[in-house]
C-alpha cells in the first residue's frame, strides 16, 4: 500500500472551518443550518460533543446570534455560521456584540442576493453588509480566505482577533471555497498561535466591565464566576449601566471606533505576488482571487507586467497601503462576484477609477475574463 | 508553469462519480504527494439526473479550482457527452461507456469507447461498480496518479466488506486499457 501522510487530508472549506474553530478553542456553536454553510453546523454537531463543547440548533438566526453572545459572556469562545438571509437576520445582534464588546465569530458563506437569492451558487456580494449591516458607527473586522488552507488559518485568526480586540469578526466564505475538496496539510498544534481574551484580576466588588485603560480594550470577567455586572445595548458608562451623559456617551462611541483605527496596522493582512515591477495590479479576495492568480501567472508568461494584491482582511480596508501603491501602478483591476463593492473601496484608496470585472450569475469569474482585461490595459 | 491535469467525470446521479472523483483526488493528494482539488455539481442541477465531478491534479499550488481545458473526460451518458465534449483539450482523452454513448463526437482528441457498465456486470459481477472499472481505465490511460495510490485511496474510502469487489473492478478496468494499448 502507498504511504499515507497522516497530516494530509482532502477537506472542504466548510470542514476546515469547523475543525479550525475547535483548534482555536471554540466550544459553543449556536446556529440554524443554511445552504451553502450547512456542513459547518453538521460537522460541529458531531465534533463539539466529542471535545466537551455545546452545539445548539436554534429556532432562527436572531436567536442563534443571541446564544453565541450569551455563551461568550460566560467565557466560552463561540461562533455561528450562516448565509445571506440568515446573515441579514443576525445584524441586530451583531450590533449588540459590537456595542457590548463580546468576542464572537460569525461565518457567512455568501450566496447571491438580495433575499433568498442563489442558495447553491457562489457570490461575494456581502462585502458592504458585513461592514455596515448593523446600524450606527461600530467596529467590526471582516476577513476573506480563498483556499481551504486559508479558511483553516483565518478561522483561527478570526478567534484570535475577536478575543484580542473584543470586536466581532466575520469570516466571508463563498460556495466555491465552502464545497471544494482540497489538499490540506494540517498544521502541527505547536505552530498555531491561540489568543485568549484578557481577563480582569480585580475583585468582583470593584470590577467595572467597561473601565477605560491604556489599550482601549476593557478587561473581561466571565459571567458565573462571581462577577455581577450589567450588559446593555444602550449606550453605557464604565459600570455597564445606561447613561445619557454626553461626555460618557462620547467616550464610549469614540473608543469603540478608535479600537479599530488604533490597531488597524496589526489587523490588516494581505498577500502580494509579482508586484515589484508591476504596472497593472489586480486587487482580489476570496475565490475570485484564485482566478486572478491564474490570470496573473498566464499574463506573466506572455511578458505582461502584472501583479496581484490579495486581501485577507477586507475591513479595516488597507486604504493607505493601496494608496501608496498607486504611484507605481498604471491600472488597477478588481474582479469580484458582485457589481463593484470592493472596486469602490480600491477607487477611494487610489483616488482614481479602477477596471471592474464582475459576475453576478452564480459562476466563478474565469481566469480568461481577467486575462482579457489585463491584455486590454497593456496594449 | 508546472504540470496541471484536469479530469471531468460526468453521467447520471447515482453512478458514483462524486465518490470516484474523491478517490482520485485523495490518491493524488494523500498518497502521491501531489496537489489536488475535487468539486462537483451542487444544488438543484445535482438532483435533475445529471452529475458532474471535477478533479484537478497539479505538482504546484492549484489556483483556479475548476476544469476549463479538460485533459480527460469520462461520459456515462449521451447527454453529458454532448454537453462537455467541446471542453476537451487538444490531444485530450474522451472515455465513454459505449453502452450509453452511441453518438460519438468528433474532435482533436483520443476516443476510448468501451462497454464499461457491461464489463462491470459480466466480468466483475455487479454493474454498480462501473465507476471503479472506469477509475481503473482512467488511471491506466492518464498515468497521472499511480496505481498503488489509487488502490490505497479506494481501500480507505469504500464501505467495509466491499474492498475486494471494488479493487477487483478497478484492476479489471486498469487491465482492459493496458491490454488494448499493447
Write the layout of secondary structure elements.
The complex is a heterodimer of chains A (379) and B (182).
Chain A: E1 8-11, H1 13-24, E2 28-31, H2 38-50, E3 54-57, H3 61-73, E4 78-82, H4 84-100, E5 105-110, H5 127-132, E6 141-143, H6 148-165, E7 169-174, H7 175-179, E8 181-185, H8 246-267, E9 270-273, E10 280-284, H9 286-301, E11 306-311, E12 313-315, H10 319-325, E13 331-336, H11 341-350, E14 355-358, H12 367-378
Helix pairs in contact in A: 1-2, 1-6, 3-4, 9-12, 10-11
Chain B: E1 4-12, H1 17-31, E2 35-40, H2 44-47, E3 50-58, E4 70-75, H3 78-84, E5 88-97, E6 110-114, H4 116-124, H5 130-142, H6 147-157, H7 163-180
Parallel strand pairs in B: 1-4, 4-5, 5-6
Antiparallel strand pairs in B: 1-3, 2-3
Helix pairs in contact in B: 1-6, 4-5, 4-7, 5-7
Task: Tell me what the structure shows.
The complex is a heterodimer of chains A (379) and B (182). With 379 residues, chain A is of the alpha/beta class. Chain A has two domains: 8-191, 3-Layer(aba) Sandwich (Rossmann fold), CATH 3.40.50; 271-378, Rossmann fold (3-Layer(aba) Sandwich), CATH 3.40.50. Helices cover 40% and strands 17% of the residues of chain A. Chain A has twelve helices and 14 strands. A seven-stranded mixed beta sheet of chain A has the order 3-2-4-5-7-6-12, with helices on both faces. A five-stranded mixed beta sheet of chain A has the order 9-11-10-13-14, sandwiched between helices. In chain A, helix 1 packs parallel to helix 6 (148-165) and helix 9 (286-301) crosses helix 12. The model of chain A has no long low-confidence stretch (mean pLDDT 96). Chain B has a single domain (4-180), classed as Pyruvate-ferredoxin oxidoreductase, PFOR, domain III (Pyruvate-ferredoxin Oxidoreductase, domain 3). The mean pLDDT of chain B is 93. Chain B is of the alpha/beta class and 182 residues long. In chain B, helix 3 links the parallel strand 4 and strand 5. The longest helix of chain B is centred in the C-terminal third of the chain and has 18 residues, at 163-180. Helix content of chain B is 42%, strand content 25%. Chain B has a six-stranded mixed beta sheet with strand order 2-3-1-4-5-6, sandwiched between helices. Chains A and B meet through strand 1, helix 7, strand 8 and helix 9 of A and helix 1, strand 2 and helix 6 of B.
Amino acid at each position: 500500500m502507498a504511504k499515507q501522510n497522516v497530516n494530509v487530508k482532502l477537506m472542504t472549506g466548510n470542514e476546515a472551518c469547523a475543525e479550525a474553530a475547535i483548534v482555536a478553542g471554540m466550544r459553543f456553536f449556536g446556529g440554524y443550518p443554511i445552504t451553502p454553510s450547512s456542513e459547518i453546523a453538521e460537522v460541529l454537531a458531531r465534533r463539539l460533543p466529542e471535545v466537551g463543547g455545546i452545539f445548539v440548533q436554534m429556532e432562527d438566526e436572531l436567536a442563534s446570534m443571541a446564544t453565541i453572545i450569551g455563551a461568550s459572556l460566560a467565557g466560552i469562545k463561540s461562533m455561528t455560521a450562516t448565509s445571506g438571509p440568515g446573515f441579514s437576520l443576525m445584524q441586530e445582534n451583531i450590533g449588540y456584540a459590537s456595542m457590548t464588546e463580546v468576542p464572537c465569530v460569525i461565518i457567512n458563506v455568501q450566496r447571491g442576493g438580495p433575499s433568498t437569492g442563489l442558495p447553491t451558487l457562489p457570490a461575494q456580494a456581502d462585502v458592504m453588509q458585513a461592514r455596515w449591516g448593523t446600524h450606527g458607527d461600530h467596529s467590526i473586522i471582516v476577513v476573506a480566505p480563498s483556499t481551504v488552507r486559508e479558511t483553516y488559518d483565518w478561522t483561527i485568526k478570526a478567534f484570535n482577533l475577536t478575543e484580542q480586540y473584543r470586536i466581532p469578526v466575520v469570516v466571508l466564505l463563498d460556495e466555491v471555497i465552502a464545497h471544494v475538496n482540497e489538499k490540506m496539510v494540517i498544521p502541527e498544534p505547536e505552530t498555531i498561535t491561540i489568543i485568549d481574551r484578557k481577563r480582569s484580576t480585580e475583585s468582583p466588588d470593584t470590577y467595572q466591565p467597561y473601565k477605560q485603560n491604556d489599550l482601549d480594550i476593557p478587561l473581561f470577567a466571565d459571567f458565573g464566576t462571581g462577577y455581577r455586572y450589567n450588559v446593555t445595548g444602550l449606550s453605557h458608562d464604565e459600570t455597564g449601566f445606561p447613561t445619557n451623559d454626553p461626555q460618557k456617551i462620547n467616550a464610549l462611541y469614540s473608543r469603540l471606533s478608535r479600537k479599530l483605527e488604533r490597531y488597524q496596522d496589526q489587523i490588516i493582512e494581505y498577500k502580494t505576488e509579482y508586484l515589484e515591477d508591476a504596472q497593472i495590479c489586480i486587487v482580489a479576495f476570496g475565490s475570485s482571487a484564485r482566478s486572478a492568480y491564474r490570470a496573473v501567472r498566464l499574463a506573466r508568461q506572455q511578458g505582461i507586467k502584472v501583479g496581484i494584491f490579495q486581501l485577507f482582511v477586507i475591513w479595516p480596508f488597507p486604504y493607505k497601503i493601496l494608496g501608496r501603491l498607486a504611484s507605481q501602478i498604471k491600472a488597477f483591476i478588481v474582479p469580484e462576484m458582485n457589481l463593484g463593492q470592493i472596486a469602490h473601496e480600491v477607487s477611494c484608496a487610489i483616488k482614481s477609477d479602477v477596471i471592474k470585472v464582475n459576475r453576478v450569475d452564480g459562476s466563478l469569474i474565469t481566469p480568461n475574463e481577467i486575462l482579457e482585461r489585463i491584455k486590454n490595459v497593456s496594449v | 508553469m508546472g504540470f496541471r491535469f484536469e479530469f471531468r467525470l460526468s453521467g447520471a446521479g447515482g453512478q458514483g462519480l462524486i465518490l470516484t472523483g474523491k478517490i482520485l483526488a485523495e490518491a493524488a493528494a494523500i498518497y502521491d504527494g501531489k496537489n489536488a482539488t475535487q468539486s462537483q455539481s451542487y444544488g438543484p442541477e445535482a438532483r435533475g439526473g445529471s452529475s458532474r465531478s471535477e478533479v484537478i491534479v497539479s505538482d504546484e499550488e492549484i489556483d483556479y479550482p475548476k476544469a476549463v481545458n479538460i485533459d480527460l473526460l469520462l461520459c456515462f451518458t449521451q447527454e453529458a457527452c454532448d454537453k462537455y465534449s467541446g471542453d476537451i483539450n487538444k490531444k485530450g482523452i474522451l472515455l465513454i461507456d459505449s453502452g450509453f454513448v452511441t453518438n460519438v463526437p468528433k474532435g482533436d482528441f483520443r476516443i476510448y469507447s468501451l462497454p464499461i457498465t457491461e464489463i462491470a456486470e459480466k466480468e466483475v459481477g455487479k454493474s454498480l461498480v462501473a465507476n471503479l472499472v472506469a477509475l481503473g481505465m482512467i488511471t491506466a490511460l492518464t498515468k497521472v496518479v499511480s496505481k498503488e495510490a489509487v488502490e490505497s485511496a479506494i481501500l480507505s474510502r469504500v464501505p467495509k466488506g466491499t474492498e475486494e469487489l471494488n479493487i477487483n473492478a478497478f484492476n479489471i478496468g486498469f487491465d482492459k486499457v493496458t491490454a488494448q494499448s499493447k
